Amino acid sequence: MDFDTSFATYIQIGALSVMVWDTLQNLGNDYCLLFQHEVKFPTMVYTLSRITTLAYVVGKVVMLSDPIENCTTYEEAIIGILIVSVSSTMFLSYLRVCAVWDWDRRIVGIFGASWISVVAGNLTCIVSVKGVVVRVEGAPYCVDQIVGKYLAASFLSAMINHGAVLVALTYKLCKSNLAYSREVTVRDGLRMAVLGQSLPAFSKALLQESQICYIIAMISGVACAVWFYCWPSEPNSPLRLTLATPAITLTNIMLCRVFRNTKLGLNRSYGLPRRRGIPNRERENLSEMAKAAGESVHAEEMDDGEARPRTPIQVSVSQVVEFKVDSAAVRKSSGSVDVVSFSMV
After folding, report:
1. Separation of alpha carbons 29 and 173, rounded Å
2. Helix H or strand E encompassing 309
3. d(CA 29, CA 23)
4. Exposed (0-12), middle (13-18) or buried (19+): which is 135, by Cβ within 10 Å?
């Protein structure tokens, strides 16, 4: 058991290192979200997700590295933080798919039920995992022990949800582009769905970022499931849950990255250059980027494939229609003309 505890501790420390690195790297962006933009419900969910995920990973490292006497209470607190972390992280994914589908009632209902299933799956941790004290050189260390049969529902439900969200996002983005295409072969459709071929620059960037995010999340879930079922150890060994923390960490990093980039307009592919001097509030005025972050702002894609904000534009046109007099001499001296002027907003 000494080897099991040490090995699990090293994995948790690695996950904590990645989480701390990502948190420090994005402190400036998080500051912009909280203090330079209007804080709405999606931003509050994002903040809750980041804080609880970091707290969960720190708690796991402390549990395996420091002696703990009251193991049962500590384990219950860690599981509570885990449930809040996963629920808030997955809710960001729910907001994204609903926003891209313009809050279609069917999508809201279907993926709302999917999100509830993920929350219910994680509730199985309450009855399936308990903390037990293991003596290592006389010191009491707290480790996880599997006591239930339904723990797999926690990561399998999340993995299925990731796949469903990816399919829904891909279908919606490709369908919107196909509406303007006259003839599209099956091969062209597959290239569009997989590679983003023929999609405008903004839609292609949104599709590819979603693919990277959810594929990584699904791969981490598959790795966690394979490790859980195939690791040659005792059924109750804590090593079976070793990859759960890295999987939760990666999923949180990827989903929060998508939200943050969408909210702040940090991706160059969206057609808005990343340079200093552009106010943060101007970056918000991108349509689907803001919608994917839970906002409702309009933008349009131009002929060059770039997405630009649709803002009111005042245009004045002056044109000489006719002179009021026929005499050239009088016309030269008076300069009286009728002027056509109009405004377009």
Report:
1. 27
2. strand 307-309
3. 10
4. exposed
Phi first, then psi: give them for residue 216, nearest 5 degrees.
-65, -40
What mean pLDDT value characterizes the chain?
77
**What number is the average pLDDT over the span 320-333?**
46
Q: Which residue is it, tokens 């994002």?
A: 46
Helix, strand, or coil here: 134?
strand
Q: Do residues 218 and 163 lie in contact, with contact meaning Cβ atoms separated by under 8 Å?
A: yes
Angle at 273 between CA 267 and CA 278, to 5 degrees: 110
Alpha carbon distance 177, 332 (integer Å): 56
The residue with tokens 């384990």 is 75
φ/ψ bin of 102: left (φ > 0), alpha (ψ from -120 to 50), beta (otherwise): left
Helix, strand or coil, per DSSP, at residue 145? strand
Specify whether the CB–CB gap between 204 and 269 falls below 8 A.
yes
- The residue behind tokens 């803002």 is 311
153-197 pLDDT per residue, tens: 888 899 999 999 999 998 888 887 766 666 666 777 777 777 777
Q: What is the distance between the alpha carbons of residues 214 and 222, in angstroms, rounded to a whole number?
A: 12
Q: φ and ψ at 140, to 5 degrees?
A: -80, 120
